[in-house]
Amino acid sequence: MFEQINHHVTKCIALSAEELDIFNSILVYKAVPKKTILLHESEVCNFEAYINKGCIRNYYIDENGFEVTLQFAIEDWWVSDIASFQNHEPANMFIETLEDCELLMLSPQTKEELLEKVPKLERVFRLMVQRNLAVLQSRLFKAIATSAQEKYIDFINRYPTIPQRVAQHYIASYLGISPEFLSKVRTKLSKK
Predict the structure, then answer these.
(1) How far is CA 150 from CA 134, 145, 157, 190, in A?
(2) Measuring CA to CA, which residue among 58, 140, 56 is closest to residue 93?
(3) R_g of the chain computed on alpha carbons
(4) Are 95 and 114 in contact (CB under 8 A)?
(5) Backbone angles phi, psi at 83, to 5 degrees
(6) Total number of domains in the chain
(7) Exposed, middle or buried by CB within 10 Å (0-12, 13-18, 19+), for 88?
(8) What confidence tens digit (pLDDT) does each residue in 86-118 have?
(9) In CATH, what number is assigned to the domain containing residue 37?
(10) Structural contact between residues 94 and 59, judged by C-beta atoms closer than 8 angstroms
């Protein structure tokens, strides 16, 4: 159960067997069926979850009542509402499982306990935040400066397995286009 997350962490830092045991003992395993809302808007997010298996999306509901997908997360990724988790404030988003998931979870309390016992893990979490920020900056640039076709090509190049795992209307929402327009883009690309 911990092999995947241990590999994930040890790509960033070296941990002794004792430190890995501490890390693994603090993680909480949770099996979650698909179509489960892990976090509702306005709740305080009390978890950071490593995805051992499955697919999850973060989204919000805009002023017109439409779901806007912010992120997809699959195996070997973490999912949370960072601002809500860190600041103990109400979330601005929903987090929903799109497939049956196996998660390894930390609460704010268990994360603090973990970082006290294994301070080296601060580096892992810092690198995750930096990587997340870089992805968000890239996504913002692409949202402003590229066409729908370029956004879709970038998406399938970056995340080649996700289009087979999630509904096309979620991808359209993530790209900021209508499902009908995404269908036209895909048709156009298939003819090339």
Answers:
(1) 19, 10, 10, 14
(2) 58
(3) 18
(4) no
(5) -65, -45
(6) 1
(7) exposed
(8) 999 999 999 999 999 999 999 999 999 999 999
(9) 2.60.120.10
(10) yes
Q: Give a yes or no: residue 91 inside a domain.
A: yes
pTM beyond 0.70: yes
Query: Which alpha helices (H) appear in the chain, and where do they start and end?
Result: 3-10, 17-26, 82-87, 108-117, 121-145, 148-158, 168-175, 179-190
CB 67, CB 173: distance < 8 Å: yes
Round to whole Å and give the CA distance between 115 and 74: 25
The answer as to whether 85 is a domain residue is yes
* Rounded average pLDDT over 27-48: 97
Per the structure, the complete domain to which residue 54 belongs is given by 3-118
Tell me which amino acid residue 115 is. L
d(C-alpha 134, C-alpha 2), whole Å: 27
Q: Which two tokens stand for residue 112?
A: 């603090």
Quick: pLDDT tens for 157-191. Answer: 999 999 999 999 999 999 999 999 999 999 888 88
Q: Is 59 helix (H, G, I), strand (E, B) or coil?
A: strand
134 part of a folded domain: no
- For residue 19, what are its two tokens? 């430190």
